[in-house]
Each structure stands twice: as structure tokens, then as C-alpha cells.
Amino acid sequence: MCGIVGYLGKKNTKEILLSGLKELEYRGYDSAGIAVLQNGNFSNYKAVGKLVNLEKKTKNFITNGFAIGIGHTRWATHGKPTELNAHPHIGENSYVVHNGIIENYVEIKKDLKNDGVNFLSQTDTEVIVHLFEKNLKSEKSAFGAFKKTISKLDGAYAILLVTKSENDTIFYAKHGSPMLFGVNAENEKYFASSDTPLIGQCSHVNYFEDGDYGYVSASEIVIFDKNNIKKDAVLSALSENKLSAQKDGFRFFMEKEIYEQGEVISDTLLGRITENEVIFDEIPKDLFDGIKELKLCACGTSYHSALSASYLFERYSKIKTSVEIASEFRYREPIMSKDTLFVVISQSGETADTLETLKMAKNAGLKTLVICNVDNSSMVRLADATILTRAGIEKGVASTKAFATQITVFWMLTLYIAKIKKSLSNKKISRQISLLREVPSVVKVTNEMHEKIKRISKRYLHGHGFFFIGRDIFFPLALEGALKLKEISYLHAEGYPSGEMKHGPIALADPELFTIALLPEHLHFEKSKSNVEELSARDSTICAISAVEFEKADDFIQISKCKDYMLEFFEMMVVVQLLSLEISIRLGNDVDMPRNLAKSVTVE
Question: Where are the alpha helices (DSSP H) in 297-400?
């Protein structure tokens, strides 16, 4: 989720780096920094919060003539969002920026400390620059030291490193995190973690493959592959359309954001899970002292994620949990007790109704926690504690990856509380964490699934409405599926608990009523199946989503065989998102900007 930029040339290096970082703002970040090497001297600037803070710090800094520079926007993974933890990280004579996670950084850090190295930050990244400088003392060249350094790193990374001993060179390595290199007619060299910072600066780019490493100087472009074999750059023409580049070839931002969910869920997990526990450094240790109840409060999609979380908190954390719609709660004159942790959920952190309920809880003396995607938002500033979801900027009005990361955070928080309350054994917590690790691969969209949903969608363009039905935690997912369809297709849709259909709604059943049935194999399958059979017997058109084939379905979307209902939850989430997307596209609607809606609802 972090962003990287690099530049080697004679223009105003500061402006090029800041401009590049601005193009990466859509990915989300909580701090930023740049380091520039010119005439053998480093200039380094960092700031917490938005880029405007870094721009203010660098207001009087200008480069004249040849210089090299690297820049970075950071989501906190190891360590809180502070200037010391912001990139670039410094050694004695070198700076580094890094996306990803160094899984063996604890061991490396321990060895370096034993060698007398002092660390300034809490990050995993800082070990890279200190290990490089240690290797520099024994290797014949800076490149030799860099090569030896990356050979010791386990995990995912995109790295740029600059050092005084080679003041016209940027060293780079890519494994598991995106990075590309660009060049223009003036022989200027650029690095970035996506296309957009390079548009308008470069004519051609080289996309690095996993395992690629090397260096770029004023006169050389050197690339080695994962087998240490030297290879040539493969330069391809760069699009000149920033909007198109941001969409990465997808038809709509919403479609791109559905496909990004594996990446952002990985970012959400980074630095927060070990083999047997969940770590939230951002939560005060005493936040749950004296807490006997959770009250979750939100609107729209965030309400659905909160409702989903309530099942997990009571099932795994064994803590009483209630869920409130913010726009109702704020006018109800509710009774609030101080043994309740008040949790608000918002993508933007500015949702007016939810913000007001947070103020009510604060005034009542309750401890407060916000689950949010935007650092330094109103809710983040007001709450006692914050967990950031790291979904990045979501340009589609209909939320997808924000919902996915909220559910991921809640699942982790469930296990975090279970550890404190000893409501789950260590063995069961470890199993849940192993399931969490599988989620990024589960939400990966396959061409086969997407093509099937495209074909099926043509059946569901007319009729008098949709029922999305599910039991247990799949009921909130049914609500979310119905909301997605309403938002972008303008077709009437409702989410219902499967067992409630017989208490009135089944009167609507006929061939023009479309039922989207969520049938998880590992949670109440037979009961849910019976409810769907009741609708089928009354001629409702059935689209079943399950790993187990349902013979009475008119359409069947098969998900993967999963080992747990939560993995089924995430894969079904992707299916209902794609189904809504494809129906909307067939109807000719503007998927990203549906009528009458705004991304952040800051009015009552």
C-alpha cells in the first residue's frame, strides 16, 4: 500500500519527487518523506499526515544541477505513524525506502544491535540500510554490499537505496511488491511503484519481475534476474492518460477495486499477525480493561461490516455486542454505561451521523475506538484509539475494498480480544490466524468466475426485485449484496435472513422475483438450503452461490472448496460485488458515479 518514487537527473529533484508522491496518494498513507543526494551531501525531510505537511517542510529546499532522490508514502505496519518511523530510513551514509515487509527483520536487527548498531525507528525497513552499511565494510563495491544485503532478506519488498560512496547511483530490488523504472529522451531515470507518477515524465518504462535487482546511474541501467543472470531492460511505451493508467485497464474504478482486494487485505494484515497472536500496536494496552460490552455504530456498508463483526465477537471473543445504525442511535436518547467500549466504523472518518454518535459516547465518558480508512480524519482525532484499515483511496462510490478490509480488521480484533479474555485456546487462535492468511488468495478474481458472472448477469436485468438471503454472518453479507445492487443498478433489492422468508416476504415469490442465495457449506447449509427450496417451489428464480452444487438453482455460481465458513464469506463477497457490477454495466449505468450518491456523507 505504500508508494515509492525515485529520480536521477538535472531537474528540480524535490518537485519531481513530491509530484510523484502526489500521484500515489490514492493508495493511502499516514506519513511521507524524501531524501536527496547532491554533491556528496544528503538532504532529508519527513512529515506525518498529508503531503501538504511535507511540502511545507521542503518549501525552501531547491536542487540545482544533477542529483538523485528517493521518496515514499507510508502506511504504518511496524511502529506508529511518526517522523522517526517514516521513510526514508538513514544509516551513517545511506538512505533507503521500502514497500512490503521483511519477515526476518527481528533476527537481523538482533545481530546488528549486537554489532553496536543503534536503531532510530520501530520499523522492519531500517534493518536494510544498516545491514547494507555493515556489508559495505567487507565488500569491494556498494553493489556487492547491496546484493549481499538483499540475499539475507525474507519477505516481500520493493527497495530503493542511495549511498554517498556512489553519489550518482540508485540501487533497487523487487520481490513481491510492484516497482517499475522509466527513462526519457533527456536520459533522466525514474522509479515508481505504479505507472501514474511516471506519466508525463517518461516515454518508456521497464516493469521489474520478482527477483530483479541492480542499479541505475547516469550512464548505466543494470538488471539481474532472480538467478543472478544479467539481462536487458524491456522498455515499453507508457500511456499518456493518467485516468486510464489509474484504472490499470479496468472499465471502472469499482472493478479495479474489486480486483485489488487481495492486495489491500494483505496490507491490512501486515505487521499485525504472528503465528499465534494478533498485534495492534496502535491500541492502548488498557483499552479493554473493565469492558463488558461492545457497541458498534455505523451507517451503510460500514453498518453491514459491524453487523458481521457482532457474530464473531460473541462467538469467539465471548463478549456482549450490539450494533446500532448511527442515524437512529443519535436521536434515541440511548442509555450508555461506562463498561461499554463504543466502536464507530467509517470509510472516510467524516460520516456526519456516525461522528455525532462518537461525540455522544465521549460526552458520556465511554472509551472509544474508530475503525477507519483515513488517518487524521475527524473521527480519528476524536477517538481514544484507532485501527486504520489500509484500503487506500476508493474512487468508486459503491464500497468494495473498504468493506473487505473492515471485515478483516474486525476478524483480527475478535482474536485480539479473545487472547485478552482467554475465550479461545492458543490452538484455536492459531487456526484462525492461519485462515486469515488465506484470505488474500481467496478474494483473487479468476477469469473463469468473472466470465461466468458476466454471462449470468444478462438474466437479471428486469423483474420486480431481488432477495439476497443468508443465515448467520451471511445475513449481513446478503444486506451488503443487496445494497451494492441498489446503489449502482437502481434495481430494487433487499437482504433477508433466510429463515425469515416464510414470515411474510415469501408472498412475493414468482418467476420475476430473483433470489440470490448464499449457501455456505460450513455454516447451516441444510437449513439454508431448505429455505431456498421453499422459494423455488413457489417459482422464484434462484441464483445459488455455494461450493456445493444446488440442483434446484436456475443459475449456480460455484465458489472454491474452503476449509472454513469465513473463507466462504470472503469469496461470496467478491461474487455479489461482481454480479452487481456486471448487471449495472449491462444496464448502461455509470458504475463509479451512481446517481444521487456521494462517497462521503457529511450531512444528516
Answer: 300-312, 326-329, 352-363, 378-382
Domain with CATH 3.40.50.10490 in the chain: 253-442, 447-586
From the list 57, 242, 419, 599, the catalytic residue is 599
Q: Which of 226, 243, 235 is nearest to 174 (CA)?
A: 226
Taken in order 243, 249, 255, 261, the sign of the CA dihedral is: negative
And the C-alpha cell for 580? Answer: 452487481
Architecture of domain 3-246: 4-Layer Sandwich (3.60)
Going by their DSSP bridges, the two strands 320-325 and 293-298 should be labelled as: parallel
- What is the CB-side half-sphere exposure of residue 189 using CA atoms within 13 A? 24
Locate 271 and state its grid cell.
505487521
150: Cβ–Cβ under 8 A, 6 or more apart, which residues?
A: 157, 159, 173, 175, 213
What integer pLDDT is reported at residue 58 of this predicted model? 94
Q: Are 159 and 173 contacting, i.e. CB atoms less than 8 angstroms apart? A: yes
pLDDT digits (tens, 9 = 90+) for 377-401: 789 989 999 999 998 878 888 899 9
Query: Concatenated DSSP letters for 210-244?
Result: TT-EEEEESS-EEEE-TTS-EE----EEPPS-HHH
Catalytic residue among 2, 297, 372, 562: 2
Q: Judge whether 256 counts as a catalytic residue.
A: no
> DSSP characters for 307-320?
HHHHHHIIIII--E
Q: What is the CATH number of domain 253-442?
A: 3.40.50.10490
Active site residue 297: no
How do residues 148-183 score in pLDDT, each as one tens digit? 999 999 988 899 999 998 989 999 999 878 889 999
φ, ψ dihedrals at 273, nearest 5°: -130, 140
Edge-to-edge, what's the strand order for the sheet holding 513-519? Answer: 493-497, 465-470, 513-519, 541-546, 555-558
Q: How far apart are the first and last CA of the chain?
A: 32
Correct CATH for 447-586 of 3.30.1360.120, 3.40.50.10490, 3.40.50.1000, 3.40.50.150: 3.40.50.10490
Every domain range in the chain assigned CATH 3.60.20.10:
3-246
Q: Is 141 exposed, middle or buried (0-12, 13-18, 19+ CB in 10 A)?
A: exposed
Beta strands in 1-137 (DSSP E): 3-9, 31-38, 41-48, 67-74, 89-90, 94-102
Q: Model pTM? A: 0.74
